[in-house]
């Protein structure tokens, strides 16, 4: 999809893997009884083929509220995902898009999160900003996403922090489960001192780490690209009826959605400040 460059960078971090249709495509619904969703079968904590991701569970919640059942088309997510799925008619909804995404009609945002710092608790680094001078020498792990750079990577480069940065492919080995988790594992294993990662991904895998990890939200800096984004669902442009119905249910179930996201360790942010949100905005 074509979007502003920070949204593209975020999308690349959220949508990891190769761009080919999986052999798990569900039979198309012709009765109108299905909420047709396109999702990645190996992209925890967001989605997987076993339905264990929080976007799987949110899709189920929305389907039940609309009196439907979920029907999936599984597609490994990378550039071209929306064009080849939602806008090609393979489904009616895509989860987890930046609310400002182009070429979709976005619902109201159902959470707001951002990029984070991840460190081992036993290191007591107490980092809170990319301006900390120790980042000039600490080993820093980041996700590599092809030709795009995530906002924190661009922010590090602006500060001249390059030579001590180690890249981990967010695509990883798609034959293995949870390819993006390798970056968080690198912190636990001591390969790097700190990781910069998208908050929902980092929070989930940090919460499942045998080594206690600390997850610190990054505040936006006017000198840098945005680190924080509101996340929504996307329907096809012109599908205003479905958007309105989803908006209604997202608002009605905001407390349930908030609780679901916290179960997965998603660091929720307020609209006003870099603090945990009291509820969905």
UniProtKB/TrEMBL annotation:
Domain Solute-binding protein family 3/N-terminal positions: 34-268
One Pfam family in the UniProt entry: SBP_bac_3
InterPro entries for this protein: Quinoprotein_dehydrogenase (IPR022448), Solute-binding_3/MltF_N (IPR001638)
Alphabetical UniProt keywords: Signal
Signal sequence annotation: 1-28
Name of this chain's protein: ABC transporter substrate-binding protein
Origin species: Novimethylophilus kurashikiensis
């Amino acid at each position: 999809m074509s979007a502003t460059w920070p949204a593209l960078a975020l999308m690349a971090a959220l949508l990891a893997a190769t761009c080919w249709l999986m052999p798990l495509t569900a039979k198309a619904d012709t009765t109108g009884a299905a909420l047709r969703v396109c999702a990645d079968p190996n992209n925890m904590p967001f989605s997987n083929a076993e339905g264990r991701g929080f976007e799987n569970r949110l899709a189920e919640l929305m389907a039940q509220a609309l009196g439907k059942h979920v029907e999936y088309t599984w597609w490994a997510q990378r550039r071209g995902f929306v064009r080849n799925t939602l806008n090609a008619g393979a489904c009616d909804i895509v989860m987890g898009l930046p609310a400002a995404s182009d070429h979709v009609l976005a619902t109201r945002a159902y959470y707001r999160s951002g990029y984070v710092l991840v460190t081992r608790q036993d290191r007591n680094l107490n980092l809170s900003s990319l301006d900390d001078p120790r980042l000039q020498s600490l080993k820093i792990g980041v996700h590599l996403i092809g030709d795009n750079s995530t906002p924190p990577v661009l922010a590090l480069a602006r500060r001249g922090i390059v030579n001590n940065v180690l890249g981990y492919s967010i695509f990883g080995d798609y034959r293995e489960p949870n390819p993006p988790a390798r970056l968080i594992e690198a912190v636990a294993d001591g390969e790097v001192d700190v990781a910069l990662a998208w908050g929902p991904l980092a929070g989930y895998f940090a919460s499942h780490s045998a080594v206690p990890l600390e997850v610190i939200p990054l505040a936006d800096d006017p000198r840098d690209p945005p680190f924080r984004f509101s996340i929504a669902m996307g329907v096809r442009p012109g599908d205003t009826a479905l958007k309105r119905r989803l908006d209604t249910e997202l608002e009605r179930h905001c407390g349930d959605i908030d609780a679901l996201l916290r179960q997965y360790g998603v660091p929720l942010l307020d609209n006003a400040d870099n603090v945990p949100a009291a509820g969905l905005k």
